[in-house]
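ok so dumb question maybe but i'm new to this and my supervisor (M.) told me to 'just get the structure for Cytochrome P450 71A1-like' and walked off. so i did the thing. is this what she meant?? sequence i used:
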Amino acid sequence: MAPFVTALSRTQMELPPPWASSSLGAVLATALLLLVTVLRRRRSSTSKYNLPPGPRPWPVTGNLHLIGSLPHRSLHALSARHGPLMSLRFGSVPVVVASSVDAARFVLRIHDAAFIDRPRMASGRYTAYDFSDIVWSPYGAYWRQARKLWQTKLFSARQLRSQEHVRVEELRGMLLHLHRGLTSPPPPAGRGAVVLKEHLLMLSLNVISRMALGRKYVGDGEDAAGSPVSPGEFRWMVDELFVLNGVLSVGDFFPWLRWLEPQGYIRRMKRLARMFDRFLEHVVDEHNERRRREGEEFVATDMVDLLLELADDPTLEVPIERDGVKGFVLVRQEGY
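this is what came out, is it supposed to look like this??
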């Protein structure tokens, strides 16, 4: 009987199984192979860490099913059950949550060097010039240099004092605009009630634009002449940047689904990146032209000027490329 079994098994090996030619069989085989690969990776990666307690993750999705529409409340409820320092798994990514003062001190102060690195997520890749800014760049020589320049050059106490007049002028301009709107005839409907949200938003944009870019590229009037984007477009771009830097893309937690891109976030990020790059290329070109025109009499007056000077500094440990300059400026536009 043994030879018959051996012969039969050889025949089965030579002939394809009956479901191999069907599309359903191919899908099932691929899904099974994917599941086995994920489970093996999960076991191998989990065994490397001494993780704190946490809820048992599901295969493939991990603990994502426990996170509701208000993630902070979901995490609070889970921490009440599993402790102030707990481990979760979002897809194939292990996550440690610190939700108390002592746990935060343990992570941010005692073991800050172990937790200081940034995850390489889609937001940093597509909206921050491939992790070229200080927010998304991974911990290393480039990040340490960027942090030092941020503190000693770009936002030093001396630099902030030198631009105090910008903040004063824009605040006075906003107050004067509000005063004229309330006192000029005919009296507006609902006198005495002013919605400050739009006025404060434009105040912030104008201050940031003048401090970082040298002039109001995104305001109204002659100051914004020549800007490649309208004030409305720029406000939309800033809002979109905030939204896309806070979303959870499926590909960040399920790398094997990155090609599928079911949420559409990557398409939005690429579109936004093209729009910001067109604007920032215009800004950098204008500043380079002024540097060339003024020659030895050139004096840096804003953040772009300082960054372009630093980019020409041969003593930097890590050179700042043109994308790095634009990435730093983009962080400033976010209000950091």
